[in-house]
């Protein structure tokens, strides 16, 4: 680690994003911490004092309503709120280098819960239907994985953040709005796909979402999904969907807990892991949705047991907000979290 760092620091580094928080919300939470750090603050810019006035250079603000003391931050590929793991972050001029992480190889680990599909393909959605899982075992999952390896075609799920005419697909879904044009299937590559473990229901605590789509909402979802999968711009008629749909059988053991499977994969950019788990459930003659998703690698950044986690950074942020004096500056004047970040970042 260099004894001194160029400031303001333009660097790429990765955070271990916790589950349950959107990627940009995490960056917004870290903004006050980074803005107060000498690592990222531009010493040539006037800083705002406690009264809200600018010091130096006439004390002017950088434009009406603008906070030019904020650090420029961005992320190289968002993670769903449910997901955790590697989130690549860029600061200052290094934000220009984030685009290369949108088109790079990624690694994930995902846990799928068998016997239930949801509208979002994960546990944060609502139950669409429950199915029997008789015959689903380790061997059947191993056998089914073969069809998802290599180059495959995927159509983005209707509840995805993919934008069309500036609006995410999930907004079209929530308002039952016809798509302005068809969504073409995209070719993605699954370089490796492996079953890590298969666990019977008695050996885990995962459960189906409590909320269930009512019948009208379920029918509307089926119509939208049919529209997306067939590349149509108009919403198909209800009777057309009903004729093509076969109701899935309800489990004959409603009190039993279904099994889970955990898979790990290396995939190309643009691969929808939730779709793989959803489609794998169908290939097993049942259903499945994601209950845990972790991005373990993105480009050159790999998830390891972190010495300085996001929780540690937030703890420093809370100390700053509460006025607590933060000890631990080294001979160069860096705090512990700043030293840790310097040892892991890639200066650009």
Automatic annotation (TrEMBL):
InterPro entries: PsdUridine_synth_cat_dom_sf, PsdUridine_synth_N, tRNA_psdUridine_synth_TruB, TruB_C. Its EC number is 5.4.99.25. One of its GO terms (biological process) is mRNA pseudouridine synthesis. GO terms for molecular function: RNA binding; tRNA pseudouridine(55) synthase activity. Residues 274-308 form the tRNA pseudouridylate synthase B C-terminal domain. Residues 37-77, 231-256, 307-333 are annotated as: Disordered. It is an enzyme of class 5 (isomerase). Residues 54-64 have a biased composition (Basic residues). It comes from the Eukaryota. It holds the Pfam family TruB_C_2. It catalyses: a uridine in mRNA = a pseudouridine in mRNA. Residues 42-53, 317-333 have a biased composition (Basic and acidic residues). Belongs to the pseudouridine synthase TruB family. This is tRNA pseudouridine(55) synthase. It comes from Rhodotorula graminis (strain WP1).
């Amino acid at each position: 680690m260099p004894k001194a760092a160029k400031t303001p620091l333009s660097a790429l580094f990765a955070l271990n994003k916790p589950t349950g928080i959107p990627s940009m919300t995490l960056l917004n939470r870290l903004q006050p911490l980074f803005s107060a750090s000498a690592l990222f603050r531009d010493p040539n810019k006037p800083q705002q004092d406690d009264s809200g006035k600018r010091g130096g250079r006439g004390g002017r603000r950088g434009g009406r309503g603008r906070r030019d003391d904020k650090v420029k931050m961005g992320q190289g590929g968002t993670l769903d709120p449910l997901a955790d793991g590697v989130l690549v972050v860029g600061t200052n001029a290094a934000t220009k280098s984030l685009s290369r992480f949108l088109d790079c190889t990624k690694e994930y680990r995902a846990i799928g819960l068998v016997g239930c599909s949801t509208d979002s393909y994960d546990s944060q959605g609502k139950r669409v239907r429950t199915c029997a899982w008789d015959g689903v075992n380790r061997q059947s999952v191993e056998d089914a994985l073969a069809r998802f390896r290599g180059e495959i075609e995927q159509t983005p799920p209707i509840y995805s953040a993919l934008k069309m005419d500036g609006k995410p697909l999930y907004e079209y879904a929530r308002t039952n709005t016809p798509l302005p044009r068809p969504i073409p299937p995209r070719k993605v590559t699954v370089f490796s796909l492996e079953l890590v473990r298969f666990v019977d229901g008695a050996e885990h605590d995962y459960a189906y979402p409590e909320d269930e789509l009512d019948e009208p909402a379920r029918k509307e979802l089926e119509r939208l999904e049919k529209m997306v999968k067939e590349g149509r711009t108009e919403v198909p008629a209800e009777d057309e969907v009903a004729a093509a749909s076969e109701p899935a059988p309800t489990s004959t053991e409603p009190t039993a807990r279904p099994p889970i499977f955990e898979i790990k994969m290396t995939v190309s950019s643009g691969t929808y892991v939730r779709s793989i788990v959803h489609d794998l459930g169908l290939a097993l003659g049942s259903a499945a949705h994601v209950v845990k998703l972790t991005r373990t690698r993105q480009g050159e950044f790999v998830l390891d047991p972190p010495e300085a986690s996001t929780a540690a950074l937030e703890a420093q942020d809370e100390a700053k907000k509460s006025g607590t004096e933060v000890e631990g500056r080294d001979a160069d004047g860096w705090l512990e979290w700043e030293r840790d970040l310097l040892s892991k970042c890639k200066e650009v």
